[in-house]
């Protein structure tokens, strides 16, 4: 399992489930993400604003989306008093002034504030402090521009350009081929192929870089991107996706512990983890969850690491098949995968996802134990000439 890599001295071994998770619900007075509580309208249509001069005008939501799965209907938003947001901002600004002290001596409080949701006005800065990219950029001044001046591999350049239009095409930053969003996205992805030529470029990196660009300038986003790829989920984007395959088996093992009935169903119909968890993990749910939920998950991910991805994945699986009736309707692999694509209404509420993910009765120790088990299992399978996870002998 990829480690929950915070800046080296700041890693916490505290288990998530031992705290009062009710503190992280959607209670408007204290912990709503960004000061909002909302339902998310999931559709593929563009939203029309009120009529102007006899014709409808298309309207962006507060996150910059014009339509599609990630669109948040402004009519469904309820604002929290501005005073609540200002108090949270001041607390974060105070932490920034004494960051090392907070992370080394009061990490539990930092974690609590990340779980409540980072105020949008300082989210970008908080992410950079949490992942250490702020320090990486300071120690590599000018490096990003140097990367952009170097000769690039034509194959990577071509692959990246082909994928640019696929990254959140209904977001205002990435709608135009000539826009600064696609231009900066190309810069980040091509610079990473210079920075890490062994891994080069993987299509799943696009959404990660795009989310970062929605919050910060290209150079800051690049170093944040480097931190995610190399510290939080190392080897996820390497050829062969070995780390993703291992974590898929880890997830399946944890599912057996937390929800045996769903585990048995997936096993019965041979629904292998890679068929449903690959996009969740490699894109950190940015192409799966409503946007307000994505941001809450990322806030926790930057603080606590990859274990948050496992927890959220287990919650999705649990509520996708919340009843025996839902399970019984899925008579095969196809029906089961289709059920996972349609999120239940509970998962449109970011507070609900946070609360339920922290309530899961699994510890970091459980995850590490399952990881070691799967690594040893795959090693033994390879030594016997068996393809891991299949029980079938590999072709010579």
Automatic annotation (TrEMBL):
Pfam families registered for this protein in UniProt: RabGAP-TBC
Transmembrane segments: none
Highest taxon listed in the record's lineage: Eukaryota
Residue ranges, compositional bias (Basic and acidic residues): 11-20, 37-48
Key word Glycosyltransferase present: no
Disordered as annotated region, ranges: 1-56, 366-396
Rab-GAP TBC domain: residues covered: 117-305
Keywords: GTPase activation
Ranges of biased composition (kind: Acidic residues): 25-36
One MF annotation (Gene Ontology) recorded for this entry: GTPase activator activity
Key word Manganese present: no
CC per GO annotation: plasma membrane
Protein name in the entry: Rab-GAP TBC domain-containing protein
UniProt organism field: Sinanodonta woodiana (Chinese pond mussel)
